Structure formats: C-alpha cells, structure tokens
Fold DNA sulfur modification protein DndB.
Amino acid sequence: MGSLLSSPPASRTTAGFEYVFPAIRGVQAQREFYVSMCPLRLIPKIFLFDEDELAPEVRAQRVLNKARVPALASYIIDNPADYVFSALTASVDGEMRFVGIADEGPGMRIGQLHIPMAARFLINDGQHRRAAIETALTENPELGDETIAVVFFHDAGLSRSQQMFADLNRHAVRPARSIGVLYDHRDERAKIARLLALRSSVFRNFVEMETSTLSARSRKLFTLSALYYATSSLLQGLELDDAEQAAKLADEYWTAVDSLIPEWELVRNRKMTAAEVRRQYLHSHGIALHALGRLGNTMLQISTTPTSWRPQLEPLAKIDWSRTNRDWEGRAIVGGRVSKNHSNVVLTVNYLRQKLGLELSPEEAHTEATHLRGER
C-alpha cells in the first residue's frame, strides 16, 4: 500500500518526505514504468485531473464529463462485493526512485517506489474512474481500504502526456452491445433477452449473440441487442414478479406477433433465408422490433384481461413490411437505408398505432405532424 508519511504535498513543507508504494518495475519503449496498488482513499488526494478551463491544445486530457460520474459511482456503491475497475495511468512530475528487494534476478523488478510528496501526479487515463471513486467514498468511506492498480510513468512534458492519452485511447473499441447484453448478469432486462434468445420458439437459433450488426450472409434474423431494446420497451412500467415471469409474458407477445408475420416462420422452415428476409422486409430490423415492443407495451397496459390484447394485434397481418413500401420512406427508411434514430422509431410506432386504430401520445403526434409537414 502507499504509505502517507506527512501532510498533503506542498513543496515548502514536504522536502525530504515521500510516498512509498509497493511496486513492480517494467520497461516499455525503453522507458521504465511502475505498477502499484493504491488504497482508494488515497486516489482523490494525490491524483490530480487537469480540470482548468484550458484550450484543448494545452490540456493533457479531454474535459471531464461530469454526467458520467454518478453512474460510475453508483456502480461501485451498489456492487461492493463484485465491482471491477481497470488500472489508472498517471504521470509523475518529479523524481521517482525504485528500490528492488534484490540486486539481480526476479527480485530486482519487485520492490518499493519512492516519490517525493512535492511531486505532481497527473492522470493520463482514468479520470472518470478517479472522480467516481471520490464520489463513492463520500457515501461509503469503508471503500477507502480497497485498492486499485495504478501504472506510474515519469512525466516527460505536455507533448508526451498528450501522446500517451492518444495512444491509450487509439485502439480502444467499445464492445458490441449484443455481447454486453450476453455477459451482463446484473441487468434483469439483459437476462430476459437472453432467456428469449435461448428458449423462445420465435427466436431460438436465429439471434446473433455477439455482434450488433448482421452481415449480408448471416443466417440470423435478429441481434441480441435489438431483442434487448425491443423487449425492454415492451415491458416498460409493467409490474412483474421476476425475470422468468417477464420472459414468459414477452414470449407470449412475440409469439403472437410471429403468427402475424409469415416470413419469420418461412425462415425457420428453411423456405426462405434470413438474408432474403432482411434484404426484402423491414420486420426483422432493430427499428421494427423496437416499434413492435413499444406498440405491445401500450396493448399490455390497456388490456383488461391477460389475453384481451391478442385480437387487437390482428391488423398487423395486413401491414406491408416490404422495404419497397413507400410508406416506410422517411419513417423507417431514409435515403434507401434503414434508420435507427429516435424520431424514426417514433414515426414507425406511429404507423403501427394508426393501422391498429390507437391514439398517438402528444410527443408522437408532434413528431407525426412534423413529418407530414416535411412531405408537403
């Protein structure tokens, strides 16, 4: 653990005093760096973030997005037994002295890292994690005894710090939403989507579980992320006991929808390929699933009995889902391409509501009016 030997850093009062961290020494690009474990309570005290209102060219990081911090802090507080944070990366503007436990062999890479208290620590990567840790500690001080890995580099100036930030983020790729849903065991909606994908006769074997886009030759009809958003919209605001009950209700709804869309069954019976259906029809695309989910939510909300919503869905069988249907242009299709924008989802929902004789909400009516004005 890092040992705090005196009051917070100040060049006039900390001469001769230092932080001491247990560390492992490594080499990258012919430069030494050090990996240590720091107590969370120490993170906000010594690791600074360049939060001044400076122009981008004289900052070493992007501006802190404060809107992200509460969610990250809640993640730590709500999951004290199984949260995971990756390492912080920091530059040290000051001398670092490493003392290995041995002069040669493996022991020369393991030892203690001595950093003067007057040194300045600047986070190159992890500023939002640092801010979240600070926020979480105010609500749960006991987290202060937990640790996080920190990678220390020697500060070689602004240009080097900016290059480090660029390099650390150059190849960072956000994982596809589908695989995020597949691996998320905290989100009940993700569990419901997985249950449908694995058990439902409508979706089993026809859901892409990893990627959020389908290749032209894919044998899948849907993506797990599309099923997740559609089913989340379907169950929004409904009081259900658990994920199993929610998945059962969702399966009943999607089975009813399936009976009104013959092409889905043709794919299951191998009379059409999934690629043909996706190329010719809209109903397997994410925007259509999302719209069907929102439509179903309305049906379930207004139903007076557990099954009274079923007959109300029957007009779906008469909808022309083909992508050549000019009704979709400007709603679900823009410039020949399927659009997933929020306004396009609303316009697609509007189209379905009108076909089923349902009223539009104020937001939907406004979006519809704007769309119709644009057509004239």
Summary: The chain has two domains: 18-170, 177-375. The first strand starts at residue 18 and ends at 28. Residues 1-12 have pLDDT under 50 and may be disordered.
